[in-house]
């Protein structure tokens, strides 16, 4: 099973790919500086005092070290994975492998104007559902039978059940600014078949 650290590691590799043009430009600049320094040392090796020769030699060594670090960064960059492949091969399989959390829903209502709602708002990200999630105000009880009221993005799914409930997944560490730990993933509001809703549901 994929770990969240592996998902983050691969994404950081993608970020390094986007930095490659800047790193290459920096490497070229340091190569030019290195060549100029080397030419200067060769031309003036007889005129320079021993201390000046050693100082310029140390400068050249430092320049070579910087160039080596930049070159290693370019060589170690993985160009084989795109953002789309990262999502399909790492992020989505990881999210799918997570256990579902469940909340019993006592009542719910669709929110038309989310900006005026003062309740806690939880965004949701869906990878597999075809319908766009809607904002719904929920009255729920958790596993400790504590009552909560909040607003969440969710899709609706009608089922042969007697009591509505909400399922969702969460990550325990932020992966990217888009995929954060304070969001819900694959959020579904499961409702009895006889409920009348005016929004698209998964069984349509």
Brief descriptors of the model:
single chain; 204 residues; alpha/beta; 5-stranded mixed beta barrel; 7 strands; 40% helix; 24% strand; rod-shaped
Give your account of this protein's structure.
It is built from three helices and seven strands, in the order αααβββββββ. Strand 4 and strand 5 (about 145-160) form a beta hairpin. About 40% of the residues lie in helices and about 25% in strands. The longest helix has about 40 residues, at about 5-45. It is α/β, with parallel strands linked by helices and about 200 residues long.
Give the topology, please.
Blueprint: H1 4-43, H2 50-75, H3 83-97, E1 101-110, E2 121-122, E3 124-125, E4 134-141, E5 147-159, E6 165-169, E7 184-192
Parallel strand pairs: 2-5, 3-7, 5-7
Antiparallel strand pairs: 1-4, 1-6, 4-5, 6-7
Helix pairs in contact: 1-2, 1-3
Oligomeric state of the chains present here: single chain
Largest sheet: 5 strands, mixed, barrel
- Shape summary: rod-shaped
| Class inferred from helices and paired strands | alpha/beta
Tell me, rounded to a whole number, the average pLDDT. 83
Strand order of the largest sheet: 1-4-5-7-6
Number of strands: 7
The number of helical runs is: 3
Helix content: 25-40%
Cα end-to-end separation = 33 Å
Order of helices and strands: HHHEEEEEEE
Could you tell me the radius of gyration in angstroms?
28 Å
Strand percentage lies at 15-25%
Low-confidence stretches: none
Précis, in short:
A hairpin with a 5-residue loop joins strand 4 and strand 5. By secondary structure, this protein is α/β, with parallel strands linked by helices.
């Amino acid at each position: 099973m994929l770990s969240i650290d592996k998902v983050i590691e691969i994404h950081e590799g993608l970020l390094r790919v986007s930095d490659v043009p800047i790193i290459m430009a920096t490497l070229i600049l340091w190569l030019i500086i290195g060549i100029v320094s080397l030419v200067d040392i060769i031309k003036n090796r007889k005129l320079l005092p021993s201390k000046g020769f050693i100082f310029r030699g140390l400068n050249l060594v430092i320049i070579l070290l910087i160039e080596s670090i930049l070159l290693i960064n370019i060589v170690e960059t993985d160009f084989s994975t795109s953002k789309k492949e990262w999502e399909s091969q790492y992020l989505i399989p990881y999210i799918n492998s997570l256990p579902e959390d469940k909340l019993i829903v006592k009542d719910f209502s669709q929110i038309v104007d989310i900006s005026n709602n003062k309740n806690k708002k939880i965004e949701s990200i869906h990878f597999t559902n075809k319908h766009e999630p809607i904002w719904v105000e929920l009255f729920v009880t958790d596993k400790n039978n504590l009552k909560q009221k909040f607003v969440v993005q969710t899709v609706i799914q009608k089922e042969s059940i007697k009591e509505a409930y909400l399922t969702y997944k969460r990550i325990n560490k932020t992966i990217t600014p888009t995929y954060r730990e304070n969001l819900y993933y694959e959020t579904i509001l499961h409702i009895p078949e006889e409920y009348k809703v005016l929004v698209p549901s998964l069984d349509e």
